[in-house]
């Protein structure tokens, strides 16, 4: 009688890899048994499958030219009909070519939420800086202003060998570190910067770039010097000196320019005060900064191990930025479906902004002998800003016209201190954790403002038009103070092999005070007397207090699945007090905050997660100051001290797949967010007037839905990289107009595709296409729909003539249509070109001749649109136009002497 093993048909499958883990194609797999002999070849992914196998005594051999033969024997006791073989590793056959060893570096490795790029697997030009190298890595994009995107999301901070580099500043690292110093680049997902891992968090993770230096580059000195002059009085100069000594780091960088080049981003990828940009803008070769800017910056950073288990780093940065912006805008506010009460405000403006920003930060980390961790992070900043603003405006409402000017000049002084302290207790019992943290914030602002508002008003309603003049001049002194404290305590206790409980307690208190004195400069009784407007004066105290007590349960049965569910109670109390009127406002509420989520690793390359988060958003000072602020006579703001705090509920799901053998990455996310007690504007306009009044109220019904995807892969070979991404956002926004509820529905869709092709060692090209749809509809005073379209096509190429000369060109063409104002529907063509010549030993000197915006069309590209409530706002600002520049760059490098 035959045994079951001899009569039953079987299937055997598996993968063949090399010693680096790369899957091998065209491997010959030969199987023999007592009844069968079968030979198959592994696929491009190193996969093989053999079906219909019968008999016993199964033997399998794996062979490939250049590799040692591997033999496997299947146990006679294994009678399974479906068998998955462990990965078979083929080792190089060194005897085939004596003295020659071939080692292949895996380009991309994924471990958990971390993606690692091994730089030796990529080819970069000699002396390339990190910014240029990042542009060639799959899944990473770099915009013209230096913002780095990884897997579609901006990088918020940078580290070198696990330590913050220059306070985490992204631009300083990417524009100073040489690419050939770097062993690997890691993209990390961090929910916070604490050294101790927290089991649960309600914050979205941020992306951090960690740079791992090569072993022989951990003790080096390097730097660069750059100077350049150009037409239209353009100039640039920068210097950077950096020293790494196996853990000790010192950096000094400085820059001066009027070419809209910022050396520092202060931890924010959007720089200083610019509007948020997205991945859609990455390959638009326009200069993204409005106005003409003169920027001076200086910074230094120091990091060292004070003791064996004590790390210390500190950084200081200073930026002086002077911006001069000219522009024009149109704001249309609809209050009547028959257009009898619709206010239009057309403005031409000139603004000068002088911003001086100092930032001093430090961080101390200490690990005690019992492995407890202490972190102390103080950050002090001081911001001094002077603003001069002049606007010529024409305001119309039916037959009423106001033609005049609005001027204001102001100075702001804003010191700010943040102090974060964290202590993490380590226990002998595995999984048990205790972590406590406290945070303090002290912020104050002093503002002096001189406002002048005057216009000629013409009322054409009667037969004989009525002409009147209006003039108002206020001198405003305001002091704001915000002091806050937060404390949290977390205790995690494992109570079984797979389960843990976390007990959470958070407490937060914020005190705000505002004192404001308004002087009417047009009224006085005696020459040296001051006439104060009591109705505009403020003496206001506000306190926001909340605590949160919660319990989270986490279940981790294996390495592939993790789930958590929790519940928290959050009492909230807002109190405000007006000493002048002896009035107190109080709002109390209890929020019930459920949390839940899971992460499931479907296989080694695929994971899926679902998360729910709840969060409080308190009203800001503008929303709650209970005064009628008419310092801008056409737009009166009235605060509402009885506002409640918002509470948002967000659920999101993410699917990620990484195919290591092909260098492919796919990610998609869907998120739904509902906000209870949403703070919205409540606008009122009166027939026969051009004045609008805005106050605020709470309402329900706001929600937004967001979806995005991204996919990057190599095509044909590693020299061709394709990146595809897209997103669709839907907003159901609410507002009130003349006490009528208005719903603004906005749909934004963007699609981007980029192809990067390295033709050879002497030619690189990039092709890009982006499409953006912006559709907005609002219901009051009548249903109105605005649909804007924008299409961008761009290409860039770089060629190397011999070893010392480089030619490059960039071109982008944008097509805009559907916007309300004609100046929004322009179609600019941007062309940039440059010639580079390298010389001196090791090409350390670089001479560059650059032509920017050869057709001089960038100067008209500062367009901006916004559709909220019953408002349609569109504006255009000037930007930097065509110029030519010659720059000289010298790279300084010093290595330790070999022993």
Explain this structure.
This protein has 899 residues and is mainly beta. Among the domains are: 80 residues, Immunoglobulins (Immunoglobulin-like), CATH 2.60.40; 150 residues, Ferric Hydroxamate Uptake Protein, Chain A, domain 1 (Beta Complex). The strands form four sheets. It has a 26-stranded antiparallel β-barrel. Strands 9, 10, 11, 12, 13, 14, 15 and 16 form an eight-stranded mixed sheet that branches. The N terminus is likely disordered. Helix content is 2%, strand content 65%.
In short:
This is Outer membrane protein beta-barrel domain-containing protein. This protein has 899 residues and is mainly β.
Helix and strand arrangement:
Blueprint: H1 4-7, E1 10-18, E2 28-32, E3 37-41, E4 47-53, E5 59-63, E6 70-73, E7 82-84, E8 88-90, E9 108-111, E10 114-118, H2 130-134, E11 140-142, E12 148-150, E13 153-160, E14 163-164, H3 170-174, E15 182-190, E16 206-213, E17 219-230, E18 235-245, E19 248-257, E20 292-307, E21 310-334, E22 342-367, E23 373-397, E24 400-426, E25 433-459, E26 466-494, E27 499-520, E28 538-558, E29 561-578, E30 583-603, E31 606-617, H4 621-624, E32 628-629, E33 635-638, E34 646-659, E35 664-676, E36 678-685, E37 692-699, E38 702-715, E39 717-737, E40 740-760, E41 763-778, E42 784-801, E43 805-817, E44 829-839, E45 845-852, E46 862-868, E47 871-877, E48 883-894
Parallel strand pairs: 1-7, 1-8, 13-16, 33-37, 36-39
Antiparallel strand pairs: 1-4, 2-3, 2-5, 5-6, 9-10, 10-15, 11-12, 12-13, 13-14, 15-16, 17-18, 17-48, 18-19, 19-20, 20-21, 21-22, 21-47, 22-23, 23-24, 24-25, 25-26, 26-27, 27-28, 28-29, 29-30, 30-31, 31-34, 32-33, 34-35, 35-38, 36-37, 38-39, 39-40, 40-41, 41-42, 42-43, 43-44, 44-45, 45-48, 46-47
């Amino acid at each position: 009688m035959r045994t079951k093993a001899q009569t039953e048909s079987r299937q055997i499958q598996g993968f063949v890899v090399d010693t680096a883990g790369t899957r091998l194609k065209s491997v010959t797999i030969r199987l023999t048994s007592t009844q069968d002999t079968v030979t198959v070849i592994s696929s491009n992914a190193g996969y093989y499958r053999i079906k219909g196998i019968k008999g016993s005594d199964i033997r399998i051999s794996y062979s490939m030219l250049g590799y040692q033969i591997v033999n496997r024997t299947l146990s006679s006791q294994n009678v399974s009909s479906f068998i998955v073989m462990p990965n078979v590793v083929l080792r190089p056959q060194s005897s085939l070519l004596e003295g020659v060893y071939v080692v292949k570096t895996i380009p991309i490795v994924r471990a958990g939420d971390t993606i690692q790029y091994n730089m030796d697997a990529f080819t970069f030009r000699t002396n390339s800086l990190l910014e240029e190298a990042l542009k060639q890595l799959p899944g990473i994009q770099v915009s013209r202003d230096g913002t780095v995107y990884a897997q579609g999301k901006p990088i918020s901070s940078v580290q070198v060998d696990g330590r913050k580099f220059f306070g985490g500043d992204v631009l300083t690292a990417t524009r100073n570190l040489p690419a050939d110093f770097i062993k690997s680049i890691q993209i990390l997902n961090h929910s916070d910067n604490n050294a101790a891992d927290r089991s649960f968090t309600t914050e979205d993770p941020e992306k951090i770039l960690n740079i791992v230096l090569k072993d022989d580059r951990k003790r080096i000195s390097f730097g660069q010097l750059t100077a350049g002059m150009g037409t239209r009085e353009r100039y640039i100069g920068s210097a950077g000196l950096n020293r790494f000594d196996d853990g000790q780091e010192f950096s000094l960088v400085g820059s001066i320019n009027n070419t809209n080049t910022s050396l520092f981003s202060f931890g924010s990828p959007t720089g200083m005060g610019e509007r948020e940009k997205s991945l859609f803008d990455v390959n638009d070769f326009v200069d993204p900064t409005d106005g003409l800017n003169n920027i001076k910056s200086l910074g230094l950073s120091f990091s060292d191990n004070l003791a064996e288990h004590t790390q210390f780093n500190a950084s200081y940065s200073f930026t002086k930025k002077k911006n001069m912006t000219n522009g024009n805008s149109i704001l249309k506010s609809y209050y009547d479906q028959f257009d009898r009460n619709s206010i239009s405000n057309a403005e031409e403006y000139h603004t000068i902004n002088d911003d001086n920003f100092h930032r001093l930060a430090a961080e101390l980390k200490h690990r005690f002998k019992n492995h407890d961790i202490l972190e102390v992070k103080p950050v002090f900043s001081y911001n001094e800003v002077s603003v001069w603003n002049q606007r010529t405006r024409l305001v119309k409402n039916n037959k009423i016209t106001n033609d005049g000017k609005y001027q204001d000049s102001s100075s702001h002084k804003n010191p700010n201190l943040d102090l974060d302290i964290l202590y993490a207790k380590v226990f002998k019992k595995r999984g048990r954790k205790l972590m406590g943290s406290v945070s303090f914030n002290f912020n104050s602002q002093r503002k002096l403002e001189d406002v002048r508002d005057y216009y000629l008003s013409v009322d054409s309603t009667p037969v004989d038009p009525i002409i009147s003049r209006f003039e108002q001049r206020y001198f405003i002194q305001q002091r704001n103070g915000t002091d806050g404290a937060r404390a949290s305590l977390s205790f995690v206790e494992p109570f079984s092999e797979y389960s843990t409980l976390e007990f959470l307690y958070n407490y937060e208190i914020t005190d705000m005070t505002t004192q404001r004195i308004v002087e009417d400069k047009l009224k006085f009784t005696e020459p040296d007397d001051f006439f104060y407007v009591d109705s505009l004066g403020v003496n206001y105290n506000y306190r926001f207090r909340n605590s949160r007590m919660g319990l989270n349960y986490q279940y981790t049965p294996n390495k592939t699945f993790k789930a958590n569910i929790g519940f928290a109670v959050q009492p909230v109390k807002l109190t405000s007090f007006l000493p002048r009127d002896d009035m107190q406002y109080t709002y109390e509420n209890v929020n019930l905050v459920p949390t839940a989520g899971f992460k499931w690793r479907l296989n080694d390359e695929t994971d899926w997660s679902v998360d729910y988060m709840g969060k409080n958003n308190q009203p800001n000072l503008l929303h709650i100051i209970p005064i009628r602020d008419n310092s801008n006579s056409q737009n009166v703001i009235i605060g509402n001290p009885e506002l409640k705090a918002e509470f948002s509920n967000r659920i999101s799901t993410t699917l990620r797949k990484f195919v290591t053998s092909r260098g492919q990455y796919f990610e998609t996310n869907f998120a739904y967010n509902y906000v209870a007690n949403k703070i919205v504007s409540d606008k009122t306009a009166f027939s026969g007037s051009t004045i609008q009044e805005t106050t605020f109220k709470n309402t329900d019904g706001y929600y937004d839905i967001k979806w995005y995807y991204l996919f990057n892969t190599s095509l044909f070979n590693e020299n061709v990289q394709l990146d595809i991404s897209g997103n669709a956002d839907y907003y159901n926004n609410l507002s009130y107009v003349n006490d009528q509820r208005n719903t603004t529905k906005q749909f934004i869709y963007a699609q981007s595709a980029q192809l990067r092709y390295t033709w050879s060692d002497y030619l690189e090209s990039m092709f890009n296409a982006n499409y953006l749809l912006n559709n907005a509809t609002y219901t009051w005073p009548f249903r109105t729909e605005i649909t804007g379209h924008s299409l961008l096509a761009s290409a860039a190429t770089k060629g190397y003539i011999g070893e010392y000369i480089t030619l490059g060109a960039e071109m982008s063409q944008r097509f805009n249509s559907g916007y309300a104002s004609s100046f929004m529907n322009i179609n600019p063509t941007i062309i940039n070109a440059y010639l580079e010549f390298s010389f001196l030993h090791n090409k350390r000197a670089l001479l560059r001749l650059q032509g920017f915006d050869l057709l001089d069309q960038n100067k008209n590209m500062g367009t901006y649109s916004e559709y909220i409530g019953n408002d349609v706002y569109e504006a255009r600002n000037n930007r930097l136009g065509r110029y030519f520049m010659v720059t000289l760059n010298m790279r300084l490098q010093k290595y330790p002497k070999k022993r």
